[in-house]
Each structure stands twice: as structure tokens, then as C-alpha cells.
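Hi everyone, sorry if this is the wrong subforum. Our group has a chain we'd like a structural model of before ordering constructs, and none of us has done structure prediction before. Sequence below.
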Amino acid sequence: MLRTSRRYALLAALGLSACSGDLFSGGQQAQAEFFFERDATGRTEFRLEGINGNIDVIAESGTEELTVGGFRRVRSSSLADAQEQLERLQVVVSIEGDAIVIRTEQPSDTQGRTFEVEYNLIVPDRLEGIIRNVNGNVLIDAMDDDVEVITTNGNITLQDHFGSADVTSTNGNLDATVTISPGGVIASTWISPRAPRPRSRPDWPTGTSRPRTSHSPTLRALLCRLPASWAMGMARSTSKR
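Answer:
Right subforum, don't worry. Here is the predicted structure as C-alpha cells:
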């Protein structure tokens, strides 16, 4: 199975990295991997609270195991400082009620340093997902339940998603292939003071239940909380202007 092979690829990739001191933009970078596994039996959702870094979430059927992997990185003026500050950048995984919560913890005052956590999650496809991030792209692949994504700077991609989707961004694009469940909605809010017109017309295949949408922030708020058929019609109409 493709998703299973992705799991093994993730494990292999994580095993190749360790703390490093590569020159990066005039400074030094320290890096460390992290890896957690949690049993999702009896849980209904996962929540990821990131700050800075890309997030990839891949859903897998027939499993109750949730895997969290990735890299912690700190860039500073010296390698010694980057390595010291790396200990202050942590990933915490906890159980809160019916949810598995993954959270980035870092100093509130970075003093010019760059703190980054790159997340790669493999989750049971039945779980609902809530993802909040500040800087970085978010990819959601093959989830079978509702998802909410809120980010400030970064693109949001939904691949082969089945269910409702509520996505919000201040600066970025949305690319989605979605099958809307009965009674579901697509809610899309883009908060941009100068949203450009779409660069190209979205592709709306005829006679398919998996419409593909690709639009720029000009569609901010137009798809907000409407039935799926209305949202699609508005997006098509807006793209012609």
C-alpha cells in the first residue's frame, strides 16, 4: 500500500539525521529528530499546534496508531548557541479528553534566532483534525473526516480529502481535491488586504464527485459556511470575473 510505504519512508528518513552545524544564511544550524507513537483507540480527534515549519499529515486506514515524526531546528550566530537553544525547542504530545494533542514549545523571545519544527504525521483516517500554524505550508492527505486548518503564512493543500473542510489563512494559496460528505461544507477564509485575481480558472471536472479547486486569496470568505454545491458555484462564478 502507498500509505504504508510512506510510513516506512518516514521512519527511514528520520533515522538518517542528527544534530548538525551547517552554515546557513551567515549563521549556524543545530538539528535533531523526534519520533512519537500514540494509540488512538477511543480518541476522536488530533490537534496540532505549531509555530514555524511545514506540516504534512497523511491519513492511513485500518490503523489505530498515530505517528508523529520530524525535525527540530534552531539557527543562530554560532553553533554552540544553536545547540544550547535546541534544548528549549520541544515537541510535546499529550492526551486531552478525546484528543491527541501535539504542541510546539519554544521561548517567547527568540532574540533573533530562528526556531523551526517540521512535522510529519501519520494518523488514522477516521480522526477529525485541527491544525494551527503561524509560518509554513500545510499538507493534508487522504483524511476521511472533518479538518480545520488555520495558518498565517503558508499554502494549504488538501489531497483526496473526504469530509468537511474549514481553512483560514492570511497569506497563502489553497489547492484542494475534496469529496464532500452528505451535509458537509467547505469553509474558506482568506484574510488579505490586497488579494490578487486568480492566475488561472479553477478546474471543475464534469460529472465527478471529486471536484478539484485551486484558487488564490481572492476567494477569501466567499466560500464561508455554505453548502458544498453553493460554494462550488460561487467559486466558479468568481473565477470568470
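For your construct planning: The two ends are 43 Å apart (CA to CA). Helices lie at 2-14, 79-86, 228-239.
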